[in-house]
Amino acid sequence: MMDSRGPVKLCITSGKGGVGKTSLTVNLAYALAANQKRVLIVDGDLGLANVDVLLGLSVDRTIRDVLDGGVDPAQAVAQVSAGVGVLPASSGVPELVNLGPEEQDQLGDLLTAIMVPYDYVLLDTAAGIGPSVLWFNTFTEHNLVITGPDPASLTDAYALIKVLHRDYARDRFHVVVNFVMSEQEAVQIYESLAAVTQRFLDLKPVYLGGIPRDTSVMKAARSQRPFVQQSPAQPAARAVFKLAERIIELA
Amino acid sequence: MTKPADPTLDCPIGQVECSLLQEIRGLRTEVEQLARLSQTDPLTGLFNFRYLIDALHREMERTRRTGLTTGLIMIDLDHFKYVNDIRGHQVGNRALQWCAARWLEVVRKIDVLCRFGGEEFTVILPATRLAQAVRVAERLREKLEISPLPLNPGELPLTASFGVDVFRANEELSPETFVERTDGFLLAAKNQGRNRVCYEESKVLRPATEVTPDERIAFFATRWPRE
Ligand SMILES: Nc1ncnc2c1ncn2[C@@H]1O[C@H](COP(=O)(O)OP(=O)(O)OP(=O)(O)O)[C@@H](O)[C@H]1O
Ligand SMILES: [Mg+2]
């Protein structure tokens, strides 16, 4: 049923840096795969802790080889587990996104071709509101905005939603609150954000869930494994499994 | 323009040693050589200006038919007048030959490297996007930068400036105006200090991201769970 509409595309984005985009992207992918979904991660960030580092990947084929050299697009994807493929950032995606409209279309066509065999596509983005972040956010039909419980990350999340809504007519935002102490805190943070978007943008984002601060996250990162695999019973993993279920319900 | 001499050309009356046929073959070869001469720059062996315009006509027509953009790089050696005036014309000529040879090592097979005249060179990049054309130009720039002309004694450092542009299928443009437009980017490269590549930077999206004072107040008016 999903095949007729192509994969569900979600862009994971935050405005502020270090709020957990990359770890959410990777773990959400594995959580979806645990539900028999085929997932493609597109790494749109050249930051230090990017997807290939989190998963201990080494990259040989790049998007650039595909665009310039007629390499088969599928060869740029690293299959990291049965259900999860990764298109790594080292493959030059962000650089390509900083191009003119015509080239962006080409990249879009290419991504669209690569993602055909998947059920879900998760795009991890860089921090900030640069052109590549905006491009990825307009490429997907869903925007997953992740924020922390602090005013700074919440304000940045709002700024991002504002630009995407006002300038790009986006209106399917899903909010995840990371680093919380409880589900209740996550809901409260979401509500303060939603209050401001409703008042100023006439827009209500959807609450997706919270992720507790959890030491198993860092431990898993250190061993370059997703925490949903390394410590599936810990609070962070359980929260991400719940997010995956909600996302499956979305479609 | 001209077809290569056909070695399989047969004598119509089946003679093995046909003098007429031999003469025809000879003439064909000569025509070919002349054609090549009229298209090449004798100093560097590169294609010349006339060929450039012909080839641009062809490639731009291809762009109109296929939609694939044609790239163009205009190149000018930096401070070449100095080389000619101070080091003499012979060194100047050797410098031009040197550049041509180094660049031929790094252009792609499909690219057409021409000497435009004086110390100006041009590369046509068939079916090439701007980003790719810029990368080719950057490669040419680097190659020259790391390849000083060997002199006896010593060596002469050489650099060049580059302007890059593409022709798109929906544009109304003659080869000459395409060259002129690309020359504008070359001029910009000169003005920005030489030894660089200039092109039209993509229209970078620069949204106003500010959160207004009102919005800020609304945020801080909310009760923070941890406060
Ligand atoms: N729920 C959590 N509990 C504990 N630590 C976490 C949690 N989520 C993320 N972290 C840690 O926070 C740090 C930042 O996370 P991550 O790299 O995923 O953020 P990011 O938003 O992708 O950052 P950037 O903007 O730099 O790309 C990492 O060290 C990660 O392990
Ligand atoms: Mg990240």
Could you give the topology of this structure?
The complex is a heterodimer of chains A (about 250) and B (about 230).
Chain A lengths: L7 E6 L7 H14 L4 E6 L6 H4 L8 H7 L8 E4 L2 E4 L5 H5 L3 H14 L5 E6 L5 H9 L2 E6 L3 H18 L4 E8 L2 H19 L4 E7 L2 H8 L4 H4 L4 H16 L1
Parallel strand pairs in A: 1-5, 1-6, 2-4, 2-5, 6-7, 7-8
Antiparallel strand pairs in A: 3-4
Helix pairs in contact in A: 1-11, 7-8
Chain B lengths: L18 H21 L9 H18 L3 E8 L2 H8 L1 H18 L5 E6 L2 E6 L4 H16 L3 E2 L4 E2 L3 E8 L7 H17 L5 E2 L14 H9 L6
Parallel strand pairs in B: 6-7
Antiparallel strand pairs in B: 1-3, 1-6, 2-3, 4-5
Magnesium ion binds next to helix 1 of chain A.
Your description of this structure?
The complex is a heterodimer of chains A (251) and B (227). Chain A has eleven helices and eight strands. Chain A has an eight-stranded mixed sheet, with helices on both faces. In chain A, helix 1 (21-34) crosses helix 11 and helix 7 (151-168) packs across helix 8 (183-201). Chain A has a domain at 8-142 and 215-250: P-loop containing nucleotide triphosphate hydrolases (Rossmann fold), CATH 3.40.50.300. Chain A has helices at 21-34, 51-54, 63-69, 93-97, 101-114, 131-139, 151-168, 183-201, 215-222, 227-230, 235-250; strands at 8-13, 39-44, 78-81, 84-87, 120-125, 142-147, 173-180, 206-212. By secondary structure, chain B is α+β, with helices and mostly antiparallel strands. Chain B has one domain (47-221): Reverse transcriptase/Diguanylate cyclase domain (Alpha-Beta Plaits, 2-Layer Sandwich), CATH 3.30.70.270. In chain B, 47% of the residues lie in helices and 15% in strands. Chain B is flat. The site of adenosine-5'-triphosphate has 21 residues of chain A, from helix 1, strand 7 and helix 9.
